[in-house]
Amino acid sequence: MASLKKHLGKYVDPRTDFGWKFYFGREENKILLIEFLNSLFEGEKVVKDLRYKTVEHDGDHEDMRRVVFDLLCISDDGKHFIVEMQQLFQEFFKDRAIYYTSRLINKQLTRGKKGSSYCLPEVYFIGILEFRMDEKKSFEHRDTGHPYFYDVALCDKNTHEIFYDKLGYKMVSLPLFNKTPEELITVMDQWLYLLKHLSTMDKLPSFLDKRIFGLIFEIGEIGKLTEEDLMSYEASLKHKRDAESVFNSALNAGREEGRKVGREEGRKVGREEGRKVGREEGLEEGRKVGLEEGKHEKAIELARTMKQDGIPMAQIMRYTDLTAEEIEKL
User: Fold this and answer.
1) Residues with Cβ within 8 Å of residue 148, at least 6 apart in sequence
2) 122: which of 10, 55, 166, 180 fits an S-S bond (Cβ 3.0–4.6 Å)?
3) Residue 75 CB partners (closer than 8 Å, separation 6+)
4) Where in the chain does DSSP place strands (E)?
């Protein structure tokens, strides 16, 4: 761990699993989560107080997938918030968000006679992503000034009016947030800047509101961590970097495999049309196949290392996206 400590910086990085829960998942610091949520809703909803709920939920049936939220909390007026930090690209992240909210809504319905009422609670999914959710798109909403912010609700496709106002998804793609200190207009801007840059700061900058962010800089100093928290943070930071390395290696391996398969398929189709059609299709198909195979192999490698280190099953599943059955076989 000695070599790792040289690169810890002064403040706990909120983009690690430990850091996210350290700042936003502790009862004594819940004012930070309240302020963060209110900055995203910008007056649309106002959270005055909240309480934390269990983050692990088993399926209703043996074959139903178990879900583990990063954070799950309920406001004083009954609104439910799922708050997630997603570090690595996940192809079906939108599906996952829908699944999480659906499972949570399902859990709120009362069975039996009392369940005849379908009055549902308000449920919101908050996702902070360290990747571009739609890498292949050109971001048509870029002229709104918020290419990094997805504010999603059920709407009528013709009138664009809200059809159902008790379910919403607010997601932020941090790589697309590139505002400078001079461009930070809203409190949300300040929060996103802080999340992206806190690990490299050495003090609270003057352009951040001290009343809101002072507590983060007060509690976030690595030098103030207990020995137990420091060990947990170092492990979380190491696994974050390992996971990123595995993902990048799998991505590069997939690209190389895609080029190889594309060349082979192109030769089979024919010289003229084959070079034009076969190479393009082969490259794309090969890239996908190679990327998936490479990612899976690297995920297994990472899971085996984490399992040997005694990392909990839920955390291994989160970093590798492998099932419990696959991990138990390692």
Assistant:
1) 172, 173, 174, 175, 176, 177, 192
2) 166
3) 47, 48, 49, 50, 81
4) 50-52, 56-57, 67-68, 71-75, 80-86, 123-129, 149-155, 162-173
The rounded distance, in Å, linking the Cα atoms of 317 and 103 is 18
Amino acid at 74: I
Chain centroid, CA 39 distance in Å: 18
Amino acid, res. 134: D
What residues form DSSP beta bridges with 83? 71, 126
Q: Three-state DSSP class for 90?
A: coil
Where do we find the tokens 């190679």? 290
> Rounded to an integer, what distance in angstroms lies between the CA atom of residue 289 and that of residue 253?
10
The token pair that represents 259 in the structure block: 């080029």
In which residue are the tokens 């509690």 written?
219
Per-residue pLDDT of 125-175, as tens digits, reads 999 999 887 755 544 444 455 689 999 999 999 999 999 999 999 999 999
Q: pTM of the full predicted structure?
A: 0.70
User: Tokens 């509101």 — which residue?
Assistant: 209
Which parts of 25-133 fold into alpha helices (H)? 30-41, 93-108
Q: Residues 321, 299: contact at Cβ < 8 Å?
A: yes
> For residues 138 and 140, what is the distance between their CA atoms, to the nearest angstrom?
6
> What are the strands of the beta sheet with 50-52, ordered from one edge?
50-52, 71-75, 80-86, 123-129, 162-173, 149-155
- Residue 231 CA to residue 177 CA, distance in Å, equals 31
Dump pLDDT digits (tens) for 257-276.
656 655 566 556 555 665 66
Closest CA to 134 of 123, 142, 125, 145: 142
Question: Could you give the CA distance from residue 167 to residue 271 in angstroms, rounded to a whole number?
Answer: 54
